[in-house]
Amino acid sequence: MIEFILAEACNACGRCVEVCPTAVFDRMPDGLPKIARPGDCQTCFMCELYCREDAIFVGPDAGRIEGFDPQTTHRAGLMGEMRRHHGWDEWDGRYPNQHWRMEEVFLRARHLAAE
């Protein structure tokens, strides 16, 4: 389940807000995302995967928030771990991104749900 957003690392790009299939986030006036509906999180990790700043951490338990400490998690090197382990982006130019883009699927589904 979504645990936290490191505000100091977030660049307010809004990708997490756009790709979340269950609209867990609200975008604040300053552009930063806010976890508004954590209970709606499906633990799909899309927000974490699309966060190029590694500012979002999703815990492995889909049923509850586990209470990970943001600073401890950051110091342990866990921020961005999902992206690195899945080769989501190109890392050091050695791993070409071969993932097909899910964003169109989620954005389309979210648009249909809003109708």
From TrEMBL:
InterPro entries: 4Fe4S_Fe-S-bd (IPR017896), 4Fe4S_Fe_S_CS (IPR017900), Fe-S_Ferredoxin (IPR050572). The keyword Magnesium does not apply. Residues 1-31 form the 4Fe-4S ferredoxin-type domain. Keywords: 4Fe-4S, Iron, Iron-sulfur, Metal-binding, Plasmid. PANTHER family: ADENYLYLSULFATE REDUCTASE, BETA SUBUNIT (PTHR43687), BLR5484 PROTEIN (PTHR43687:SF4). This is Ferredoxin family protein. The lineage of its organism: Bacteria, Pseudomonadati, Pseudomonadota, Alphaproteobacteria, Rhodobacterales.
